[in-house]
Amino acid sequence: MRIRELFVSALRSLWSNKRRSILTMLGIVIGIAAVITILSLGDGVRVETLKSLQADSSGQQSSEIRFMSNEDGGGGGVTSDGMMLPAPSSNSKVSGFNDNDVSKAEENPKVAKVKLQSDDDGFINSQGNINSKSESFHVYLTKKANHDHLVAGRGISKSDILANNPVALVDQYTAKKAYRTINNALNAGIELNGINYTIVGIIRDDATHGEYQQYQIAVPRQVYMNNSGIVPKNTMKITFVKGADVSKETKKIAEHLNSKGSQHNSGSYEYMDMSEMLKGISDTIQMITLFVVAIAGISLFIAGIGVMNMMYISVSERTQEIGIRMAVGANQRQILWQFLIEAIALTLTGGVIGYLAGIGLAQAISSFLPFKATVTLSTFLLAFGTSTIIGLIFGILPAKTASRKNLIEILR
Fold this sequence. Notes:
Blueprint: H1 3-16, H2 18-54, E1 61-69, H3 99-106, E2 111-117, E3 123-130, E4 133-142, E5 150-153, H4 158-163, E6 167-171, H5 172-179, H6 182-185, E7 189-192, E8 195-203, E9 208-209, E10 213-214, E11 217-220, H7 221-228, E12 235-240, H8 246-260, E13 267-271, H9 274-296, H10 298-317, H11 319-327, H12 332-366, H13 377-403, H14 407-411
Parallel strand pairs: 4-11, 6-8
Antiparallel strand pairs: 1-12, 1-13, 2-12, 3-4, 3-7, 5-8, 6-11, 7-8, 9-10
Region (Disordered): 61-109
Subcellular location: Cell membrane
GO molecular function: transmembrane transporter activity
């Protein structure tokens, strides 16, 4: 019997027992639909997460290259409680980038926009003197009144900001180190970049602005800017065109700056390679998705047992048909393939229906979520391959049973 005839025979046999075939197939449909739904939603989460990490609030992909001066030593220092301070801004008044650096970066066809920005973000490392001792401080340049984290004295008031009063808040560790007690430090002086500030308040050692920015000293930003000149622009923000490989292009620009940048002899140009971090996140999401898929796959195993049970019943009911086929010349191999193809046709049909149902379900669910389900070719191949394998595994034993039947015993 040819393969085409075997398929036609299998489908006719399934059709002749529609109700039983549909009920058996239902397990495959549910299992495949569950797997496809989870995979599509998992891929959607992964794609959306990677997009959000690579793009800014406007949807554009960007990266930053920072100039690290040799004078800064490359580290942010350690506070009295052992906490690492953020990476320092340059102490130098010379910016790490000039117009030529910007022009060279803009020549990259993948770059949409280049912008230099002062990298203090409200913070700067500044050399200073307190009680005749020279030290480097991590300074918060506050734009408005600041009464946070006070333990003694007063904060920086709004009138201090408006009047450009040279006042400062100092953390407990610095105050005690310089003046032995907090009270001694109050109304004493601290000099930053040649300007004397009056210490009007003492703040906690773990004083932070925002979530992570810890600081030792706080002074009015405008006072610092008026008396200390410009804050160097040591951060180059690069916005890329859509579809650009951000990590690859950023690496190119950083390599050029480190070899020919305006300050390449005075420090280094550093950037965070997002590719490794994004790969790690992507792998983690995929692992979670596959774990959930594995759980959903248990239903396919149960459905496979249902297929095996149905095929055994079918073999038992069609003993006379098997005997007649053997009597007219069909060999064991042909009988085996007849029932095996019948099992595969059953599971494959269920797999296709389950795949379509899974896609529809994933799209319907994602319409209520902040991301879209992603359907890929791999999900189709997975549904097709899984349903075929289930048919093979759970159909082979009933098919062998049918092929090994004895013609003489059937005729009796």
